[in-house]
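Our consortium's second objective concerns turning raw sequence data into structural hypotheses that experimental partners can test. To show how far this objective has progressed, the report includes one record in full. It was chosen at random from the queue rather than selected for favorable results. The single chain below, 179 residues long, was entered without modification.
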Amino acid sequence: MTNAMLNEGTGDRDAGDIAAGFERLGAEFSNSSHRDMALASLRSLTLPDKLDPALALFADVVSQPSFPDDAFERLRNQLLASLRFRLQRASAIASEAFWETLYPEHSYGRLPQGLPDSVQQLTIEDLRDFHSRFYTSGNAIISMVGAVDRAQAERIAERLAGALPAGDAAAPIESPEPI
């Protein structure tokens, strides 16, 4: 939920403003979360008049989400509906059973989206706490592909890491039992 809320608002921008900002720059923001990581990515042109403002907007979205109430309720309802819908798909049930059997006593064996009860109990404060704890420079892995040289890539990485609050890396996830 925290990752899904990133582009729903920052300071004085709502989701529409954020989307329009990236669109105006010919840039694309995407995000996803997985069993042991969250991803936020930016695809942009490298011309300075496009890249610099796209990086500024990206840094703001990742480091300063506002977690608006209406978006939180909308996304939570969508997630709850998705969790109910998965019960109607044999492939989703099989996938869940596979992971649970493969990693019975490990977090990898649980649904990354959570369960309806846990999703229902989430609060915006939970998301804010999670964001401040894990969306830090100490947890960030910044990678780039494209028409940038090493010096430019280092400047971009420093800029993005500098936009995030300082913080230690999260403790490593305990290794699962060998399969």
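The partners drew two points from this record. The longest helix spans residues 69-86. Residues 8 and 15 are 4 Å apart (CA to CA). Both points have been shared with the crystallography group to help prioritize constructs.
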